What we know:
Strand order of the largest sheet: 5-4-1-6-7
Number of domains: 2
Radius of gyration: 21 Å
CATH architecture of the largest domain: 3-Layer(aba) Sandwich
Amino acid sequence: MDTLFFIFSKVVQFCIEPLNWLIVFVVLSLLFLSLRKTHLCKRFLLLALADLLLVGWLPTSEVLLRTLEDSVPKVQLAQMSEADFGGIIILGGAIEGGEIAVDRGEISIYSSAERVTKAFELIRKYPDLPFIFSGFSGRLSPKGISEADAFKQLVAEQGLPDKNAHYENQSRNTYENAMLMKPMILDLGAKGAKEADAPPKPWLLITSASHMYRSVKIFQKQGVEVIPVPVDYQTSNQLRWGKFDLEDGVQNWNKAMHEGIGLLAYWITGKI
């Protein structure tokens, strides 16, 4: 069932991305032009133009994305000590461990690189805390090594301590991240507890700001208390009213739509 959900989510994601609709509108306009139905051709060209303007004018996507990014406030870690945390959770989605990484012998990091750099920072800052990196691949037909194995390689290259390192390399989405990590978190929490009846400590959760709300809800549903450490912000406090940027607009819309549909799907299926 989880595999069907994963495949269906990828199909839906492709269908909702605004730039894909632009291509559909252009193709349909050309089709109707070839059929000499110029009135329909013009209508679909207008839809394509409207889609292009909607995607490229940044405030339209920034409003949605900023709402997601601000939905979970930052916690001031400086006011807390290492003893307050149970460990560190790092969610995948920023590392490429596919064929190119295998062939070239170098691990590539995506635009969500702050997930990795923040993880390195906290691993150095809290060397006695256990950390878990979770992620296999979000691709339908993955090749190469898992994200978790790629992160393990990066940890070694950075010379970071690995005595408390743990890896989960089977999950394909956020729900599977939480579900497969839960036994590991409970086991590590029990081992680290000074008293048998001591309540479990919350774990620091690192992921992109736009992804944090859904992630927190999923871990809460699994009964795992987390402290959000959002990174990879894509919006500022001010909307860029006069800015038109198709590349940034596409990325913003894709992130916002991905999270919106993800929240709806997880709510319908009882995952949050």
